[in-house]
Amino acid sequence: MTLRFWRGGDPFIWLTGSALAFCLLMISGLVGIILYNGVGVFWPSTLQQLSLRDGQVVLGKVVDRQVIPDQPEAYRIQLKVGNRDAYGLDFRWVDEADIERIERPAPVVVFERIEWGDAYGYVEKITQNGQVMVSEGQDAWDLLQPLLEASAKRWEVIRSIEHDEMGQLNRAMEELRLEKRRLEMDRAKPEAMAELEDRNRALWERYELVSDRLNAVRAENEQAVVSIRLADGQERSVRVADIVRTYKPNALDLWGKVGVYCEKGWEFVTGQPRESNTEGGIFPALFGTVMMVMLMSLAAVPFGILAALYLREYAKQGLFVRLVRIAVNNLAGVPSIVFGMFGLGFFVYGVGGGIDRLFYPEALPTPTYGTGGILWASLTLALLTVPVVIVATEEALAAVPRELREGALGLGSTKFQMIWNIVLPSALPGILTGVILATARGAGEVAPLMITGVVKLAPDLPLDAFWPFFHLERKFMHLGFHIYDVGFQSPNVEAARPMVYTTALLLLLIVLALNLTAIVVRNKLRRRYASSAF
Amino acid sequence: MSEKRGEIDEPSVSDVIENPIVEVDKLSLYYGDTQALYDVDLGVPEREVTAFIGPSGCGKSTLLRSLNRLNDLVESARIEGNVRVSGADIYDPNYDVIDLRRRVGMVFQKSNPFPKSIYENVAYGLRIAGENRRSILNESVEKSLRAAALWDEVKDRLEDNAMGLSGGQQQRLCIARTLAVEPEVVLMDEPCSALDPIATVRIEETISELKNDYTIVIVTHNLQQAARISDYTAFFYLGRLVEFNQTKQIFTQPNLKQTEDYVTGRFG
Q1: B48-58 pLDDT, tens per residue?
Q2: Could you say which of B128, B163, B165 has the minimum Cβ distance to residue A417?
Q3: From the CA of B180, how many Å to the nearest CA of chain A?
Q4: Which of A62, A236, A463, B266 has its CA 20 to 30 A from that of A357?
Q5: Which of A405, A425, A322 is nearest to B72 (CA)?
Q6: Closest Cβ opposite residue B98 in set A401, A412, A421
Q7: A319 part of contact set with chain B, CB < 8 Å
C-alpha cells in the first residue's frame, strides 16, 4: 500500500504542486493588497455626519472599524475628518456607542485645497474684495464653479510666467554671471565687463516688468474668498484660488462619482505633487522613472550584448575567460547599494567632478555634473544590470546549435557574417528575455538611486523644451523613492498611506507595461526566427 | 588465407585516379593528444561520387571536415601533412579559408536550414559573397532548388520559413543552399542518416544527378547506399585509410581481407 503510494509519485506531485500554489498565493496576495488599498483612493465616498451623545457633531469619511481593545462586542470607527487647519489632525476615532444619529447630508462639499489637505463642510457665502456676493448655500455653490475655473486659468498664467518667462530670464542671468566669472578668471578688459553689466541691467529691467505682471495676477487671486461652515459650527475662510477642486459626494450619482474618480486619477498621473508629495500628481516621478529606465537600457543593453559576444564567440576559452565569467556572475549578485556607492564615488565625484573642472570651471564651487543626476543614476543602474544582460546573452548564444554555425561557415561566411546573420538573430529571443529581466530589475531598484541623483521634489523634468532639451545633469524623481518618501518620510504618514498604495500600483503597472512590450517584441521575433523543427 | 591477395597487381591510388581535384598527402590529424588520422593518402576524382565508409570513429568524418577546414573550429585540432584542392595547399597560412569554403561546400548530417525564409536560405551564400542583384539571386535560387529536386515542392512558398519543411525537404534545401554558390566539390556528411527511406531515395537520386556537374564526397554508414551511388569508395578503419578503389572493386573483389569482412558484414 505505502509502496504503491510512493511509486505512483503522488507525494512529489503534491510537493511540487503546493510549492507552486504557495508562490501564486504570495503573488496574488501582494497584488491583491496593493489593488485593494490603491484602487479606491480616488473614489468620492459618502461623507457621514455623526451626532454624538455629548452634543458634538463630527463630519467625515469612514475609513476603518475595529473592536475596542479589552471591550468585546464594542466597536469604534475611524473617520477622516479633514480640516487639518481647524482640528490639527486628519483622523478621529469615535466609539459607536456614543453615536446618537447618522446623517448623510446632500449639501456637504469636499474642498480639495492646495494646502492643509481636504476641507469638509458647507458653503456659507462668497465674498469678493471684502463684499459679500452671495450668502446662500446653493447660489454660492453655483457661483463657486466659474470662480474656480477663473482661478485655474490664473494659475496657468502664473505657472507660464514663472516657468517660461522668468525661467528664461533666470537662465540668461546665470549665463551672464558665468561669463563674468570666466572673464574675471581670464583677466579680461574692463570694457568687456562693462558691456556685461549693461546687459545684466537690461535683463533686470525686463525681470522687474515680468515680476510686476506676476504680482498683478497674484493679487487677483486674493480677491475671491469662500466661507466654509464646518460640521461643528466653526466658520473658516478659504481663498478660492487655494481650492483645487470641489464636489458634493453625497449628492453625486454613480456617473458623477465616476467622473470625479477619473478626474482625480488623471490628475494623479499627469499632475505635479503638492503638500510634500502627499497630494496631487506624481507625473515628475513617473517621467523620471521611465526616462531613467530608458537611459539605463540604452547604456546597458548594447554594452552587455557586445561584451557577451566577445566572451562567447571570440575569446579563447580558457582559465581567464572562466574567471571573467565567474566574476560577471558574482557581480550580478552584489547588493545594489554597493553599486550606488561606486556610482557616487566614480561617476558623480570622479567623472562628474572632472567634467566640471574641465568644462564648467566658472560655475564652481556649484557643481554642474559633479553632483547626483539622472545620467549618473542611469549609468549606475546600467552597471548593475549589465551582468544580467551578459549572462543571459551568453546563454542564448550558447544555445544556438553548432550545426547552424557550421552551416554558415561552410557556405563561406566570415566569422562576423556568421555571428551577425545567423547567430544573433537566432539568439535574439533569448537575449531579449535577459534584457527584460535586467530592465525589470533596474526599474524596481531604489537604493543606489538615492545617492546618485534621486530627490524628493524636482519640479524641472530632465527633458523639456529649452535647449539642449536633455538635461542629463538634473536631479529627478523616481516612483520607488517616491513611495519610500511619502510612506515613511512625510509629516502626515497616515493621510499619505493611500497615496503610497496608489503609487505602488502605478510602479507595478509601469514595470508590467515595460515587460509586456518586451515580451510582445520577443514573441514576434520568435515567430520570425522559429528554431529548428527537430 | 594470406592477408593480402594479388599483391602484384594491386592498383595504387594514382593508378585509380587521374587528375584528382582533391589530393590528400600524408595527412595526420590530432585532437589534443589523441591521433584521429594516420598518414592518409587519397585523391578524389573530379565529377565522380566518392564514398567514405568505415565503422564509427574511424576518422571518415574528420577527414571530410579537414577538406574544407571546418576542423579549424576545434581549438585542439592540429594537422600534419597537406591537402591540395585544385593544386593549391589549403593549409598554407596565406590560403583564403573563406574562399575555400565557397569552393568546397558542405552538407551536414543533421539538416541545418537557417531560421529564415526558403528563398533567403538558398540566397544566403550569394548574399554574403556580396551579390544583391535580385535577378541574379532569383535565377540562382531557382536553379539550385531545381538541381536539388526541391523546386516543384516549394516554388509557391519561397517566402515561408524554412523550418516549416519536412526533414527530407530541409536536407534538400541544405543541398540547394550549398549548390547556389557553385562549389567545385560538395562534401556530404551522412546526409541521409536522419531521414526516412523515402526521403533517402530522393536525396540519392539528387546526388546521382549532381555528379554530372559536381565532385561529391559522401560519408555514409549505409553500405548499400555507398554501393548504389558512389563511383569510388574509401574504407577507413581506426584512423587509417585501409583501401581505396572503384566501388565495384571494393564491394566485389576487395584487395584486403579486412575490407571484405567489413563490406560483407562480418565485422563493423
Answers
A1: 999 999 988 88
A2: B128
A3: 9
A4: A463
A5: A405
A6: A412
A7: no
Give the integer Cα–Cα distance in Å for A115 and A242.
Answer: 7
DSSP secondary structure string for all residues of A422-438: IIHHHHHHHHHHHHHHH
CA distance A293 to chain B (A): 32
B117 to chain A, closest Cα gap in Å: 9
Read off the C-alpha cell for A329. Answer: 556572475
- β pairing state of B77-85 and B49-53: unpaired
Size of interface A-B (CB pairs under 8 A): 85
Q: Contact at 8 Å (CB) between B158 and B119? A: yes
DSSP, residue by residue, B50-83: EEEE-STTSSHHHHHHHHTTGGGGSTTEEEEEEE
**CA A70/CA B148 separation, integer angstroms:** 90
Q: Residue A189 pLDDT more than 60?
A: yes
Instruction: Quote the cell numbers at residue A438.
Output: 535586467
Could you identify the residue written with the cell 508629495?
A: A277
A330/chain B closest Cα distance in angstroms:
28
Confirm if A46 and A59 have CB atoms less than 8 A apart: no
Sheet holding B240-246, edge to edge: B104-107, B185-189, B215-219, B49-53, B232-237, B240-246
- CB-based contacts of B75, cutoff 8 Å, min separation 6: A316, A317
A365 preceded by cis ω (within 30°)? yes
Are B187 and B67 spatial neighbours (Cβ–Cβ below 8 Å)? Answer: yes
A530 CB neighbours in chain B (<8 A) are: 115, 161, 163-164
- Closest by CA to A296, choosing from A206, A385, A192, A183, is A385
- 3-state helix, strand and coil shares in percent for chain B, rounded to the nearest 5: 40, 25, 35
d(CA A501, CA A506): 9
Task: Name which of A290-299, A508-517, B23-32 the model is least confident about.
Answer: A508-517
pLDDT tens, A341-380? 999 999 989 998 888 888 887 777 778 787 888 999 999 9
Question: CA A272 to CA A288: how far, in whole Å?
Answer: 13
∠ CA B132-B133-B136, nearest 5°, is 115
Give which of A308, A476, A286 is closest to A378, Cα–Cα: A476
- Per DSSP, what are the bridge partners of residue A111? A119, A246
- Chain A contact for B131, CB < 8 A? no
Residue A382 CA to residue A40 CA, distance in Å, equals: 36
Instruction: Say if residues B100 and B87 touch (Cβ distance below 8 Å).
Output: no
The ipTM is 0.85
| For residues A393-401, average pLDDT | 91
Residues B162 and A9: their CA atoms lie apart, in Å, by: 41
- The C-alpha atoms of residue A444 and residue A30 are separated, in whole angstroms, by 15
**Hey, how many other C-beta atoms are within 10 angstroms of the C-beta on A69?**
8
DSSP of A136-190, one letter per residue? SHHHHHHHHHHHHHHHHHHHHHHHHIIIIIIHHHHHHHHHHHHHHHHHHHHT--H
For residue B26, give the 3-state DSSP assignment. Answer: strand
Of B99, B115, B124, Cβ closest to residue A530: B115
CB-CB under 8 Å, B125 with A426: no
C-alpha cell, A189: 578688459
Q: Does A49 touch chain B (CB under 8 A)?
A: no
Question: Comparing C-alpha atoms, which of A235, A241, A41 is closest to residue A121?
Answer: A235
Peptide bond into B191 cis (omega under 30): no
| Alpha carbon distance B181, B203 (integer Å) | 19
Q: Please provide residue A15's backbone torsions phi and psi, each rounded to the nearest 5 degrees.
A: -60, -50
Within 8 A of B114 by CB-CB distance, chain A residues are 404, 407-408, 421-422
Q: Decide if A421 touches B, using CB distance below 8 A.
A: yes
